[in-house]
Amino acid sequence: MIWNFIMEFNWFKKKKDKNEDKPLEREISELPDSDQPAGFFNRLKKGLSRTREILSTDVNELFEGKRKMDDDMLEELEEILITSDIGVQTTMDLMQKISEKSSSISNADQLKGALKEEIRSFLNVQALTAEEITTKPYVIVAIGVNGVGKTTTIGKLAARYTAKGKKVLIVAADTFRAAAVEQLAIWADRAGAEIVRHKDGADPASVAYDGIEAALARDVDIVLVDTAGRLHTKVNLMEELKKIKRTISKKLYAAPHEILLTLDATTGQNALSQVKLFHEALGVTGIAITKLDGTAKGGIVISICNNFKIPLKYIGIGENIDDLQDFDPVQFTDALF
Amino acid sequence: MFDSLTDKFDSIFKKLKGHGKLSEKNVEEGLKEVRMALLEADVHYKVVKKFVGDVKKRSLGQEVMTSLTPGQQVVKIVNDELAQLMGSSHEDLNLSGSGLGSGPVSIMLVGLQGSGKTTTAGKLAVLLRKKGKKPYLVPADIYRPAAIDQLKKLGKQLDVPVFPSSAEMNPVQICQEAGAAAHQQGCDTLLLDTAGRLHVDEELMVELCRIKDAVRPSDILLVADAMTGQDAVTIAKSFDDALDIGGIVLTKMDGDARGGAAISIKSITNKPIKFIGVGEKLSDLEPFHPGRMSSRILGMGDVLTIIEKAQSMFDKKKTAELERKLRKSQFTLDDFRDQMVQIRKMGSLDSIISMIPGIGKSKQLKNLKVDESELARTEAIISSMTPQERRQHTIINGNRRKRIAKGSGTSVQDVNRLVKNYTQAVKMLKKLNKGGMRGIGRGMMPF
């Protein structure tokens, strides 16, 4: 953690001299002071403050003038949980566990303790494994619906890897959206990564093919493939993604090594449908949740962990380049309460 | 779009309809499930609470108990309440003019990151041009990398002028200068594409207020993602409090989002949803019709939308002629092809089919994916026929079939299949005609 931070901090210093881009200046000026890991936790805490408010204040109010858990109280609790985007199904699962314990719960703190324990057990289902990159090139394909922050996530990942001294190649396979390639090129430039790009409207699979070819030729460590945003219900567009995946594995056996699904934390229950359909089509190996700042409810994180056995790898809580971090269940539940 | 919600309601009301008479317990049970369905659809819990309360109050009264078909009555009440929640009629863009004299008017687009502001700006430009306006695109997002390029590219694609903003400029300054530039180019409606921002980011919210004060836009549209969860309400409220928005555009409605955000936003801010984004093409922006939407949630389909879509695309004269022909059962292969061409103009067949009432309920048809290349092939086959063959399909013998197959790059089997399908369609039409054909709704889909 500390090492990461030092690397990232150095990276920023280097960039600051080189790049006078306006947006970056804004990012730099907002850069937190030296205790970065704690800073991230604070921002995560701030991001989840609304959810925390609901979970703590409202839970406190539940017990006003009451000494025991009763049915009314359970119903109210159910409502509180649903409001934080935890979802009806996961709420029901939580409620069942809580009501089993209800006889031993007599005040708000105990209830919160029980909730925290249960939520953490949901999140812990997938133990966090340290990122181990053994193969080279390691290919990551970013997928997701429109506007969830795929390109930004790729930019941030590229910066992380270059800061660790890896050679990174970004493949601009979003040939559909206007100026997506330009956006990615700016990120590549900031991160000090190379980029493979074609013209707008080119076949994304052919871009991916060229990207892998270039990665092999240039002896690259990490390949990040950006794809166009698409709704998970569009069959033809999902087929296009499958083709990209096939093309990559034809060129490089066992690749792509990671199919990273990006989700927007402000999304409601539809996020579950997104995970399901993308997973069915492509076999998602990791999830990144973005935009956990603001008043995003964060409940969806719990819901996803409860419903799928896909590791949640990264969470993004802001626009700064260091605002994408590894997901840590303990840290997350601590920030939630 | 609202399909999943529709599914839910379908199963709930099937339960309710099964009972001969409705007891108080039945109503409560049904409403509990309505509540869950709405919550799962991401409708804000406060809205749900009020909604269910209202329906219960009305259902438990005499209205239902004395009615002959209580189930239907509850369906009607739920529908009425839902319609009331969603508002009454479609509200269009406010182009009534700015506070700055007779110059061009401005429409401001605001919203979170990734909600689809830039794409919506492009789509609105198309819509405005259809109405005879001269739109002018103004990129005011200096923060996101290449956001300005994106709008410039869209402008080029659409052949709509774009203000030459650069990332070094200040957004307020951009919007101010754009007015004069638009006037010079003879444009009358500015579309201001602002940067995506979180509603809790005070600094950026202040920037929006400053743009608003400087430009006095005639309409401010909040662009929101239809898939937004419980937070939709807070987002809409914050933007509305800061800017007093004029309306909402809901994007990504073509996914399987249950669309609860639409209900929540409307009921909390009381601002109309003006448009919905229903696809990736720049023509995929539709006016939002609240009444129709609520009946759609209840599984009544959306016949009105199809008809309107058809009317704007179909040549009216041709439609009238076609209807006459249909009635007389003189439906030739030529007409068959015309139909196909016109239907394809309306957008993807999937989206049209999903609007037909009843199909939402049919499991088989729901998973039906229309192969559009099949349509192209059919069109090619008909185009390879002589005019006489098209008028009178009975003369198409073996030799002619071979020729047609060669001409269209298909096989004789394909031609055979088409002729068979066509004859079946004609037979079906004859039957329909006997049963009394009425309205374009059916006439549109002869095959």
Task: Give a verbal description of the structure.
The complex is a heterodimer of chains A (337) and B (447). By secondary structure, chain A is an alpha/beta fold. Chain A has helices at 2-18, 22-29, 36-47, 49-62, 71-83, 88-101, 108-123, 150-163, 180-191, 204-218, 235-251, 270-282, 299-307, 329-336; strands at residues 138-143, 168-173, 194-196, 222-227, 258-264, 286-290, 312-316, 324-326. In chain A, strand 2 (168-173), helix 9 (180-191) and strand 3 form a beta-alpha-beta unit. In chain A, helix 3 (36-47) crosses helix 14 and helix 4 (49-62) crosses helix 7. Chain B is of the alpha/beta class. Chain B contains 22 helices and seven strands. A seven-stranded mixed sheet of chain B has the order 2-3-1-4-5-6-7, sandwiched between helices. In chain B, helix 6 runs parallel beside helix 7 and helix 8 runs parallel beside helix 9 (202-215). The longest helix of chain B is centred in the C-terminal third of the chain and has 23 residues, at 412-434. Chain B starts with a helix and ends with a helix. At the A-B interface, helix 2, helix 5, helix 9 and helix 12 of A face helix 2, helix 7 and helix 10 of B.
Q: Considering DSSP H and I runs of 4 or more, what fraction of the residues of chain A is helical?
A: 40-55%
Unreliable segments of chain B (pLDDT under 50, ≥5 consecutive)?
A: 299-304, 357-368, 436-447
Oligomer: heterodimer
CATH secondary-structure class of the largest domain in chain B: Alpha Beta
Task: Report the structural category of chain A.
Answer: alpha/beta
Domains of chain B (count): 3
Task: Measure the end-to-end span of chain B.
Answer: 25 Å
The CATH class name of the domain at 130-284 in chain A reads Alpha Beta
